[in-house]
From TrEMBL:
The lineage of its organism: Eukaryota, Metazoa, Spiralia, Gnathifera, Rotifera. This is Phenylacetate 2-hydroxylase. Heme binds at C431. Belongs to the cytochrome P450 family. Keywords: Heme, Iron, Metal-binding, Monooxygenase, Oxidoreductase.
Length: 511
């Protein structure tokens, strides 16, 4: 009897040890956050991982290890440690992990996006094709798309703003701005209304899928036992089917246009028509998916948060300074055209950089997996370990930024060398679309600020929160989601604004 009990005890102990083990053994010498058996630190991190990890780093130091379920993860929380690990060790940190929910449930029917692919020959080919399509000369050739889309959004804002009399929610216009830019770039097609059903479908599905990629909302990624409860997987599967549907509609539409010779120049069209392309159908789909989804929530989030801040009392001073700086560089009212060919207003560049830093819309960046051992402060972190960048913590690091809690574009004026912020990540897998995104932000804010005064809403309950954490309505999503707010848009000089819009329209009609 005793032997039987002992046997059962040993079996239970061994089973528990297996369930409770981690992919990489504990790393000697590196502080570790407290964790419970099986779940590790998932309970402590709650729903806002970035904030909880920042608090832990006050106790454990800038870099520590943590267990989430059966995964051991290195977390970097300071500007200097992110630079050390992500930039100085960039060749070792070039890969990405495979995560259960996103890679086996949401994406099983097709290729992953570039940003979710582990490093291999195919990922290298896709990243190279995307980087070529997104380099500076290529982006300059897309400026007519940004011209048209910013024109459409600002024309609609003018139509709806009642000369500053109406409290307005700008979110639909900005979603269309970002999605149309991506669709035109990729498929040569666009939506004419901000309230189109397919547009709403794409925004809804992409936002839901972004939640399946979050570090904090997918415990089944870390605790395999939870995969036995398939409710979440069923929902992920449903979104996958809906995503496949519109991706096919878009790609088939382009193929049809190519066959009829009615297609507009675009990245996918160039690839499809290139007889020497090394990319197969799945890789082309992966690039399309990357391009459609990468800017879809990140760009509107930055513009919406930025507009929200500008509508605050402090934002009024920033707008005034921005307006004066624009007038100084372009006294002849030609800035709407000039901003398409050059970025020559340092204060607006500083303004969008500060928006990117202050709101850091992907607070936990995208995860990495090391492909070689990394030595950090004399500690060896073995190959195959997961690394999470707490980008928000890096961007609010007091050792690096003076008064990081304050929204202050001036911090980016003058000689600012090196990495400005981690909103685009860092190192070998840094955002490939940063230059395009910067041009979209620059053009939009130049035109918006010259065209309108952004005023607080009449109804105070719609006032935009200005603190970055407060302004985010969903901390469990991968990309921050601005809380709904309203503000007023008062044309600075309606006649001039109509002239600018009119000359945009003529340019577009002549294309
Ligand atoms: C303000 C807008 C944007 C923000 C804040 C943003 C942010 C990011 C971040 C944080 C990463 C992960 C970087 C890392 O791991 O170090 C990333 C990856 C990526 N982004 Fe962006 N992004 C934006 C817009 C865009 C746009 C418009 C495109 C292209 C149309 C794009 C294409 C990509 C690609 C291809 C990757 C994957 C890079 C790789 O894994 O090799 N992004 N982005």
């Amino acid at each position: 009897m005793i032997t039987l009990l002992l046997g059962v005890g040993i079996i239970i102990y061994l089973l528990f040890k297996i369930i409770d083990s981690t992919d990489v053994p504990k790393i000697r010498g590196l502080p570790e956050a407290f964790g419970w058996p099986i779940f590790g630190s998932l309970f402590q991190l709650g729903t806002n991982h970035s904030l909880a990890l920042s608090k832990l780093s006050k106790k454990l130091g800038p870099v520590f290890q943590i267990r989430l379920g059966n995964k051991r993860i290195i977390i970097a929380n300071s500007f200097a440690s992110i630079q050390e690990l992500w930039i100085r060790n960039q060749s070792s940190l070039i890969s990405r992990p495979l995560l259960h929910t996103f890679h086996t449930v949401v994406s099983s029917s097709e290729h992953f996006t570039i940003g979710t692919s582990p490093w291999d020959q195919s990922c290298k080919r896709r990243r190279k094709a995307a980087a070529t399509a997104l380099n500076k000369p290529a982006v300059q050739s897309y400026m007519q798309i940004i011209d048209k889309e910013s024109y459409s959004a600002l024309k609609d804002i003018l139509q709806e703003c009642q000369d500053g009399g109406k409290d307005l929610n700008v979110t639909p216009h900005l979603q269309r701005y970002a999605l149309n830019t991506s669709l035109m770039l990729n498929y040569g097609t666009r939506f004419t209304s901000s309230y189109d059903e397919l547009l709403k479908e794409i925004c809804e599905v992409e936002a839901a899928i972004s939640r399946f990629r979050s570090t904090s909302d997918n415990w089944q990624d870390y605790v395999p036992l939870l995969r036995l409860f398939p409710a979440k997987s069923n929902r992920a599967n449903e979104y996958r089917l809906r995503r496949d549907r519109y991706l096919n509609i878009l790609l088939d539409g382009l193929k049809q246009h190519i066959a009829n010779e009615t297609d507009k120049p675009c990245i996918t069209g160039n690839i499809l028509k290139d007889p020497t392309t090394q990319l197969n159908e799945a890789e082309i789909k992966s690039i399309c998916l990357t391009m459609v989804s990468a800017g879809l929530d990140t760009i509107p989030a930055n513009i919406i948060f930025g507009i929200g801040y500008l509508s605050s009392p402090h934002g009024q001073q920033i707008q005034q300074r921005a307006y004066e700086e624009i007038q100084e560089v372009y006294p002849d009212n030609d800035v709407w055209e000039k901003c398409l060919i050059e970025e020559r207003i340092p204060y607006i560049t500083a303004l969008y950089k500060e928006i990117l830093r202050y709101f850091t819309v992907i607070p936990m960046c995208l995860p990495r997996r090391s492909i070689q051992d990394i030595e950090y402060n004399g500690i060896v972190i073995p190959e195959g370990t997961l690394f999470y960048m707490n980008a928000f913590a890096g961007d609010y690091d007091e050792e690096h930024f003076e008064e990081p809690e304050k929204f202050n574009p001036e911090r980016y004026l003058g000689d600012v060398e090196g990495t400005s912020h981690f909103a685009y990540g860092a190192g070998s897998r840094m955002c490939a679309g940063a230059h395009l995104a910067n041009r979209e932000l620059f053009t939009f804010f130049v035109r918006l600020i010259t065209g309108f005064r952004i005023l607080p809403p009449k109804d105070e309950k719609y006032m935009a929160p200005t603190d970055a954490m407060d302004a985010n309505q969903c901390h469990t999503a991968l990309v921050a989601e601005p809380k709904m707010f309203k503000c007023r848009f008062e044309p600075r000089n309606k006649e001039l604004l109509m002239e600018w819009l009119d000359s945009c329209r003529q340019r577009i009609d002549n294309e």
